[in-house]
Structures are given as structure tokens and as C-alpha cells.
Task: structure prediction
Amino acid sequence: MNTLEHRSLRIIIMNMRKFTIFILFFLLSILISNARNPNIIFVLADDLGYNELGCYGQKWIKTPNIDKLAKEGIKFTQHYSGQAVCAPCRCILMTGKHSGHAYIRDNGDPKDGSTKNFPFPGQNPIPDNEITIAEILKEEGYKTAAIGKWGLGHFGTSGDPNKQGFDFFYGYNCQRHAHNHYPKFLWRNSEKIELVGNDRKLDGKIHSQDEFTKEALSFIEKNQKDPFFLYLPYAIPHLSIQTTDKWLNMYKKIIPEEDYVHRGYLKHPFPRAGYAAMVTQMDDSVGQIVSLVDKLGLSKNTLIIFTSDNGPTFRRLGGSDSDFFKSAGVFKGLKGSLYEGGIRVPTVAKWPGKINPGTTSDHISAFWDWLPTLSEVAGGKNPKNIDGISMMPAMKGIKQKKHDYLYWEFPSYGVQQAVRMGNWKGIRQKMSKAKNSADLVTELYNLENDPGESNNIANKHPEIVRKIESIMVEARVPSELFPLLPEERQLARKVK
Result:
């Protein structure tokens, strides 16, 4: 071999070494990237019905971005909220306990006067001893943010979001404050941020939905190098009906309006179009967030979840029209009801490489399953005495552990109890009229062939009724704050 050949061979060997080193570094970077805990984005709509997304059959309202999430991920057909109204479902989501064990079981404000000096009182606070999903993720190194509507305790109380695992909070602390989408102020942690140009009228300068999305995008940008948990409890489409012209003009000439008797909240000149516009406005926010995640190269390491806190609004309250939009689909009941329409909620999730695109799951699950699910995603440890079961197997398309039953109790809207056991659904309504527990009546439905709960077959299956009634006893611990059974309510009245 001559000198030239030797030199050529050395060059080839050196280049091979360089290439090998490059490949090793490349593979190492992949391993490091894969070793990082995945980001979690949890988007919670407010009062969005089961049938108000295109991917669930909605005909009038356009939701292309959420529909795309479903197409690229998984759609759940039998997922349930924790409760039929706002505050308790959020407590159940955060703590992994159903309403028979959760501390917050209904809406309500502190009765001790601790928040009377605030412009809005906030709701009953989560106690210090409750462990939230944010606290679990924070222990695993996550940056955490709650942006939107809180409703689980005012600043300075044990329910302060900054005391419940969230590094950052921006939004409405009190859910009644969230009944207007052009508020005079919002909270950045415990600092009041004035929104100049807003006066809580029908229109304003700064729409809260847009502010929440801006803050969410900023949080993602700032924390892209760390695992993050972004909890986005949006305040729409909860009433009042308020949106911007950009979205309203999409529907004004398409959706017909009709006269109605207005009650509650602000009156909108185009209530149906305005409601549809709010949903599409929220959908656009979801699209902005997904686009940023993609732009930053985070999509393969980010789990995105979208769901709703309960069923849609009833009887044209505030101008809303759940009948026109068929908001609950085939289901009976709306917000405030433990019938299916009040608690079955649209739910989609996307996680490239983990969730097969275009998947539909009929796994029976509920809000208390999210804590163990997200804890598993992060490699965290579940608290004791939770009621949830991780849904990750169902998301991945592998064998999934099932609940023996799902349980709800609701000490409002007439006082209600419900149990889902397989395809059986037992429900008690108007419990407030009963003098004692012996007077309570249990309805029974087979959801497999009667999803609309139209045919009460309790008299045909007494053994199933007895089983469900035993669960209604065993699945709960009485609450002094939220008495349920007639005897508990009578005792509470005597104490007062």
C-alpha cells in the first residue's frame, strides 16, 4: 500500500469515527429526551354538553381543532364528570375521590366570613390534608399552572391554588366572578390585575378567554425545557353568552333565532349564534395551544386532554338553547341532573406514539380516574384512599382494569344519588321530599338498550335495585358540610 492509499485509509477511518460519535450523541439525545417526564395539558370546558363537539355529532357548532385531537388520538364515549355542577367536579378531578368521599360535594361559599372582604367570596376551600394531582406532579419535578376558573378556595385559605400544588395561577378565583367574560379584573396568583376597558357589561375590550390562552401560551414557552402540567379550566361556554365579533359573525346569518322568555345572566341579541361562537372561540384556543406544542417540537412528549365539567345549561337560561343544539345528544337530563345528560361528558386525548390515532373507547370511567392516570404518566405515587383507576391502559389500547361501579351523590337540585354498575344505572331523584330513608325511591335503567333512561325497569329487577341501593350506602361517608340523606339533612337543620 502506497502513501496515498495510507492517507486515504486514515481519512476514511477518521470520518467513520466522527460519524460514529455523531450517531452516539444523536442516540443519547433521543434517550435523554425520552427519559424526560411527558408534559400534560388538561383542558376543561365549562358546561359543554356531550353532543356539542363535531366529533360527537354536533351539526351547527364548528370545532375543527378538538375534532382533530380526537382524530389523532382517542375519543371516550362513556366518560363521566365527577358531579353535575362546577365546584365539586373540580374537587373530584383534583383529588381522585368521588362525591361520596370528596370534601366538596356541591357549590357553596365559606360560611365563616373568611372571604367577605373580597369582591367575590370564592367557594368552599379544599382542606390542607387533601393531596391534589398538581402536588403529585410538582413532587415529580413538574412546573405547574392553573389558568382559568378555580372555584376551590380563595387566596389565603387552604384552597388557595398556590397552596394546592400550582406554581402559577391566573384567572377567576371565584366561579360567580366567572359568570361574566369581560371582568373588571382577574387574579395573577394573589395579585389583582385590572382589565381596563371592561365593566362587566355584554361587551368589553378584553375577553377573558383570550387572556387565558395568552397566558397558557406564555407558560408553555417559558417552561418548554422542563416537564410541565398546564391545567386549563376555561370559563366558556358557561353563561353569560359573551364573545367577540370575530366568532359571532361566523354564525349570525347561519343559525336561526327565535323569541324566548329571558331569565338569568346577561341578555344577548343573538343567543344561539353567540353560544355557538363561544364554543368555536374555545376550540380556536385549543388549536393555538396544539400549534405551539408542535412548533416547539414537544408534541411527541405531550399528553393533551380535553373534557367538560358537566352537562349543558337548561331551559334557555341566559339565552342558551340546549334543545336546539341537541346538546346532550340522546341522553336525558342537563346540568344539575345525575341522569346521563348531566354527567356524561365529551372526552378526547392525544399523545403521539402512546395513543393510537382514531381510537374510540367505550371504557366506563370518571373524573376521579384522572389523578391516578396522570400520576402514572409522571411516575408519581398515588395517595391512599382514592377512588380512581388509571385510564392509561385504555388509552394505549391494552387490557384495562374496570370499576365495579361508579357513584355520585348531589345534595342539591332536589337531592340526588346515582350508581352505574356495568350497563345498569340506578338513580334517586327528589330525595329532599322524603321524610326518611325508607321513603326513597330508586329508578333503574339498562343503558345498553336504553341510553336515554326512558324506561324505568326497577319493578322487573328487584335484585339489581337492592344491589345498587347497598352501594348507595357503602360507597359514601356522610358529610357535615353537605348532608344528603333525609336524616342527615334534618340533623343539619337542627344544628343550625
The domain at 37-396 is CATH 3.40.720.10 (Alkaline Phosphatase, subunit A). The first strand starts at residue 39 and ends at 45. The longest helix spans residues 3-35.
